[in-house]
Amino acid sequence: MSWASRFRLLQYTKASLWIVPLLGLVLGVLLAEWAVSVDSTGFPAGWRYSASTASGVLTAIVGAMIALLGFVVTIGVLVVQQATGTLSPRYMRLWYRDRLQKAVLATFTGTFSFSFALLRTIESDSVPDLGVSMAGAAVSVSLLLLLVYLNRFTHNLRPVAIAELVGRLGETVLVRGEAAVLGAAPRAGDPGTPADGGPVAYVRSERGGVIQAFHPGRLTALAERHDCVLLVTRLVGDYVPPGAVVVEVHGGTSAPEPQQVTGLIAFGSERTIEQDPAFALRVLVDIAIRALSPAVNDPTTAVQVLNQIESFLHTVGRAGLRDRYVLGDRHGTPRLVVQGRDWEDYLQLAVTEIREYGTPSVQICRRLRSLLEGLLTALPPGTLPAVRTELALLREAVEREYPDPARRALARTPDPQGIGARHRPDAD
Predict the structure, then answer these.
(1) Helical axes 299-319 vs 343-358, angle rounded to 10°
(2) Residue 193 pLDDT greater than 50, yes or no
(3) CA 339, 341, 345: angle at the middle one, nearest 5?
(4) CA nearest 231: which of 218, 221, 245, 244?
(5) Among 63, 66, 253, 412, fewest CB within 10 Å belongs to which?
């Protein structure tokens, strides 16, 4: 199995809602067998059960677990409806990975299978006392997990809570990716071209799809074995049609097999966050512009999401991103060239659509201006021209939208709360 196939399998496992509950189901049966095997007459008298009592308790637990499973599934359906209706369908890919939800489902299925397996061992003169007590304890744990799950459902499904979660994930992926690139950079510096002279071969995608991730270490090692330079022509997150060029092979005496190269690049139906921090920003922008739609008309939610976008942009602006990275082998020889998103790409993604959809809202105009002016004062000089460009575009949008001087002046006033913070003098 290639690395790309293992990556896709791992993605399926992370997003699956049935694998962990299935493991809980199997574990429940095994625990029931163990509880029956170790049960003995030495069990305390106060914890002994009659056959009718044990049968009634276990039967009630089996029915309760089935009902609770249906309740959790109903909550999941509500989450899907809310996410696709008021948040972003892209968020669902992250929600499916929630570990607490899988733990709740696994506990319920495990308690069900444990109790059901014990039922068949009950006889008039033989009762699994230890197992019945364990089943009661499992019910207590299940109820506690259900309360924790409900608490998360009621508190963490707000758009601002989701925005904070997605923003943290994006920043973590960005920082981790930056460290990996800097650690693999060749000591001799980045060359102007992948290689000078030599044959050039092209590796094309077979089925196409969205590039979800690639393995830079193995691609670098593969290029070293063939003494060539591999140039990845697409960004992580790009859709590649079938037959399109994905990798160019420069130099070397022989080109690697195309299957070896494509086996280190994972394609899928949609983007993932593992190597794509811009996907987190995409989700944040989706939530903001959904709140700005006429059907929802909730600019305050968009302002709260802009808080997380501003935090994300500060992290991006200090990272020193480039549109191209060169990775070297263990000797420092350049072997792999990958495309990257620079500061301007992230900034445009963060503010363009929100500006276009949010200009009619005074809140959004004021919050966007506060965000951009904050970037001007906090980021390195190299990032400032792009910020000034976005400020000019915001200024032009406000001019077009607000012909009345008083309303225009109100919309041009930077405000970190949108409307409600101390007014600062207009800098124009």
Answers:
(1) 170
(2) no
(3) 145
(4) 245
(5) 253
